[in-house]
Design a protein that fits this description.
Strand content: under 5%
Structural class: mainly alpha
Helix content: over 70%
Largest sheet: none
Number of helices: 16
Order of helices and strands: HHHHHHHHHHHHHHHH
Length: 492
């Protein structure tokens, strides 16, 4: 029966918001504890381990998560779903087994590279072990995304956070194991949740392995692996250069700004992406669809408005947030947050344009763009970080994010309609409103003390929200009440 597209996207996004919030909430609930118990140097160690293991995770993931969604949306029945699931797990076991066998020598190499920071090899070993199960967990969550089983996604994400929270409180607070306890808690929670998810899937689908499905998963996923690894390298280069050119303490302060920026990702970007990716893939791969329905552009405009408003709120309130949850040594993280949030926005644009590339299964272009970005990034960081420290790293992050999003847009525009329907004008207006509010706050409100300055920043935020909302609803084509219903593409 007919259903409003906007209502469907909003409903699934709300559920995925709960799932994404649950998936990441433990880390943010524990963040004050980390900042109170870990010095900036120790927090820098944790950030370096996570950055290095994320590169590893993307390598061993083989792009299976994205390929899974692509195959599942085209499945005709539960038997085929079970075959896709089994084939994906079998494909993942190949790089996972190799990684587990090489963990200790790889940890020694990484520890020697960062020897000046004082980080131990055992931390990298724990981090890499946890990364293997974290990747498997994300692959399994991709199954629920493809099937639009948002409630199961939310349940597993909640269970993950509860386990992670409990184990970290035990290892960090009760036993005082520091960074080692955080990484051990991640490893155990991921291993337990992977076992639970696999048992649930086996009980509901006739899981089997097909070489043809494994080959198709590899054909779609593997070409993006070099690009994904390059993206992770790009996301980590700022921390690596800071560790080499400054010290681990500055890495910790800079990484805190990145952690705060992730609030935007888990509260707005990630929940929306879960359902948006699936729906756009359905339309882009539908042979009967000539152009995307107008509703998609309207939904994207509303999403961008919310994304930028939340970014502005984080920027304006960052000094108070850091003052409440951390030590005085971390306060400079607020200086880097606006640029890091802008870099995150550029990443969201890149991700949206990549949907068109996925739909045409031309994923090799994603890797080529990432290689070009990293090749440019190394000399840029080599110039800006020694000269300007953490601020130079943040500026480089934005410049390179612009390059990456621009190159992705050019490629996607040649092979799909996703760029031609993107609301660039509205995005520009929202950014002008947010930038004006931020600089007005910096000029009028001053430092976070006294209390009147905080009230003034909140007032400026409220005015920016009113202005952006007025722009949305002034155009009748952007009102959700005018968006017509249309039937979703039926499953074959």
């Amino acid at each position: 029966m007919p259903q409003s597209e906007a209502r469907g996207v909003a409903r699934h996004s709300a559920i995925y918001f709960l799932g994404g919030l649950a998936n990441r909430s433990a880390s943010f609930l524990l963040l004050p504890l980390y900042l109170k118990t870990l010095t900036p140097t120790e927090f820098g160690w944790l950030s370096l381990v996570l950055a290095a293991t994320e590169i590893l995770a993307l390598g061993i993931g083989l792009g299976i998560g994205g390929a899974l969604v692509r195959l599942i949306v085209a499945c005709e029945d539960d038997d085929e779903v079970g075959t896709v699931i089994g084939s994906a797990i079998a494909l993942f076991l190949i790089p996972a087994s190799i990684t587990l066998a090489l963990i200790w020598p790889a940890s020694q190499i990484l520890a020697s590279y960062f020897a000046d920071t004082g980080i131990a090899a055992s931390l990298f070993a724990l981090g890499m072990s946890a990364a293997v199960f974290s990747v498997l967990f994300e692959v399994l969550l991709s199954v629920y995304r493809g099937l639009k089983k948002s409630w199961w996604y939310t349940f597993l994400s909640t269970a993950k956070s509860l386990l992670f929270l409990g184990l970290n409180l035990l290892f960090l607070l009760a036993l005082g194991w520091g960074v080692s306890g955080i990484l051990l808690g991640t490893f155990l929670s991921m291993a337990i949740l992977c076992a639970l998810a696999i048992l649930q899937m086996v009980s509901h689908y006739p899981v089997s392995v097909s070489q043809s499905h494994m080959k198709r998963l590899a054909r779609i996923g593997v070409p993006i692996v070099p690009g994904a690894v390059m993206d992770a390298v790009f996301a980590s280069l700022d921390k690596f250069f800071l560790a080499a050119q400054v010290d681990a303490a500055m890495v910790g302060i800079y990484a805190l700004a990145g952690r705060l920026a992730q609030l935007l990702r888990i509260s707005v970007a990630a929940p929306f992406a879960q359902i948006w990716t699936v729906r756009r893939l359905e339309v882009e791969t539908d042979p009967d669809a000539t152009t995307p329905p107008p509703v998609f552009r309207s939904i994207m405009v509303v999403f961008l408005a919310v994304l930028i408003l939340v970014s502005l709120a984080l920027c304006l309130l960052a000094p108070e947030i850091i003052w409440v949850i951390g030590r005085a040594e971390y306060v400079d993280a607020a200086l880097f947050l606006p640029l890091i949030l802008l870099g995150l926005l550029l990443y969201v644009l890149k991700w949206n344009f990549e949907i068109g590339i996925y739909a045409r299964e031309k994923t090799i272009w994603i890797s080529l763009v990432s290689f070009a970005t990293v090749a440019t990034a190394i000399p840029v960081y080599m110039v800006l970080v020694p000269a300007y420290g953490a601020m130079g790293a943040a500026v480089a992050f934005v410049l390179l994010g612009t390059l990456r999003a621009g190159l992705t847009m050019i490629v996607a525009n040649r092979i799909s309609s996703i760029v031609r329907t993107f609301p660039f004008t509205e995005l520009g207006v929202f950014l002008v409103i947010a930038a004006s509010a931020y600089f007005a706050s910096a000029y009028l409100a001053g430092p976070p003390v006294p209390f009147e300055a905080l009230l003034l920043r909140i007032g400026i935020l409220f005015c920016a929200a009113l202005l952006g909302g007025a722009m949305l609803f002034a155009d009748p084509h952007l009102r959700l009440s005018t968006i017509k219903n249309f039937r979703k593409r039926p499953r074959k």
